[in-house]
Amino acid sequence: MACETKVFYPCDTLAEVKEQVLKYIPVMARPLVLLRETHPVRWTGVYADIEVPNDRSLWVIGLKKPTTRKRIHELQGKEGSFKGYKLMTSVSIPVYNKKNHTTIEVLGLKPNEIANPFGQVRIAELLGVAGTDVPIAEIEKLIPPYKLGVNGYSFAVNNNGYILYHPDLRPMFQEILKPNYNSVDLAEVELIHNEKHEEPRYNDTKLFEMRKEMVDQKEGIKPGLTVKVHMDDMKRVTIREQDYFYCNISNTPFSLGIVMPSNYGKYRVSGGLELNQNRHIDANKIFPDDRWKLHPDWVYCEYNYAGTDDRKFDSPEKNMKHFLERLADEKASFNWGQSRVRPLPKCQGNGFYQADCPKLLEKREVEDEDNLEGGVESDDLGEDEDEVVEESGLDVEEPFDPIINKGFCDKELVQALVLDGEVTKVFTDRKSRKDLFKQFGIELSFVATRSGLTRWEEHKEKDEFATDEYDDGYDPDNPREPHFSEVNNEATDEVWYKRAVDYHYNNPDSFVFSVPFDIGDKRPTTVTATHAIYKEMNGRKAPAAVVGVQIDYDKFAQNFMDVTTGSGGAGYKTQSGEMLSCQNETIECYVLDNNGFVAISEDPSNIGKFFGEIDGTILNSLETSAVFKKIKIYDYQAICLEMLMMEARNIVLTTFN
Predict the structure, then answer these.
(1) Phi and psi of 358, rounded to 5°?
(2) pTM over 0.90
(3) How far apart are CA 196 and CA 648, in angstroms?
(4) How does pLDDT run across 525-559, given as a tens digit for each residue?
(5) How far separated are the first and last CA of the chain, in Å rounded?
(6) Distance (Å, rounded) from C-alpha 312 to C-alpha 290?
(7) Is the N-terminal amide bond of 524 cis, ω within 30° of 0?
(8) Most buried residue among 86, 295, 422, 512 by CB atoms closer than 10 A?
(9) 53 vs 475, which has greater pLDDT?
(10) Positive or negative CA dihedral for 447, 453, 459, 462?
(11) Are residues 415 and 423 in contact, defined by beta-carbon separation less than 8 angstroms?
(12) What is the spatial distance between Cα 641 and Cα 564, in angstroms, rounded to a whole number?
């Protein structure tokens, strides 16, 4: 600005620079103010805000001892505890003074009747800027995840191709915010698989065409992109073919993308119990106990505002029961509320909405014009106001009722939940199946459905000395083991759900098994087995739910060893006539899952390890025999910690890419 105007100001400090720059803004804004009706909307990029600030991050500079991850899970949700960072964006809009003229007295000038007989001065004044912060999580909620299905997801990028939100965006390393968390490119989260090009940062033509079109805010489709998808902190990798759909978001520099698996993403199971005056809903019969969970991030029902105790709930389950009870009481008069996504303003004539199009006048705008032209204050309008408006032919919105319109419920999702609740009531059946499950060592059975519902049934005999209550004190030497429901409540977003649905196309009758990673000789532990349930109709099918069990590891391993010994106990005869059995001391048996992790081993220290760490030669042989396939994957969001020893007592950790 100084170069253009040939005006320079000496500045000794950065504060003076800001002060001098601010003097230019009212002058530079005058052309924009003169346009009057043009209010450009500006959005920022992503930035991080601390949700609950405290002194946890001080350990990074050596002032505090690091907190273990298990301790973080123990503290999760407690008052004053660290809940991490919240990603935000901000939107702002200029505010103008709509007056074209002002008086000389207001400006503090001397009156001059000859030069200015009317005493008025033309102005174009910028009053300021109005803005607000928008949590990225609230933008994500506008895309109902249940409509995308399992392994389907949405994402958004800005006009630089940087990620606004994405399921693979990992802005934190442990409790440290990564230095490049807000500049992660689309090509760094959508990892294209190309067997001919395994080198890092390979420029795939289709992906970069899609990226360019999203940056240019165009609408398009990119079907059949083959990508590498990782799970369990990049320990598991699968190859999946996905279809991409994208379009711009009006009045923003952002573009929205929708991704669906090519095999099963084109169809989804829909439908639920129609909730009307003819059907009585009893929430206590559908969910008679506490052995059920809802997806914590999905919006089933919520109030538009809070403030009273009757609208505050400790858990999504209590919130849902409250609305189901309201639904049972109000029946046909129950108000489902307005959609979370408000429609765009209507433009005059036909065509797509654009930010600068001539808009249809609303009732409020017409009244304001009448008031300005006729000089009538709004308080002077009498009882005939409504009649005048009705005669003019304008659509008048119904008055807002704070009692009826105070909440919102996703009707389709709630009805699907009620149907799933009715179908899965077998998990509340008092009929005992413990004898059957005890034979196979099954301690817990569960089901997760498309509506985000997870139900389970305990089959393990409780220890008479065990208690369901845990002390608030944390013992690092003996941390409590979290219950299944505490760490497996996200239904379609759980890894075992995704793996079961994916593996269905390899073998529709199979179960997918997994054990905790690097469990070693820790006891007790369990094996998780899951199986996907598909709904098929007219040659089309889509995943509806996943059922599974947790099996005692010792019982699971013993059953396998017993099978390998054969009915005679000597094993099985090979083609060479030799008898082989896992009981032989010269033979070491392993059971691997579909990603090469050890599920069963005679050596307890190998359980949960990647088999390549145990015997890479055999794993290479299995790869040569096409039993396993090697997949290279690169983490472009990874950081390294550099430890600088300043003094013996002070340690400084720095991060770099």
Answers:
(1) -65, 120
(2) no
(3) 50
(4) 889 999 999 999 888 899 999 999 999 888 888 88
(5) 35
(6) 19
(7) yes
(8) 512
(9) 475
(10) positive
(11) no
(12) 47
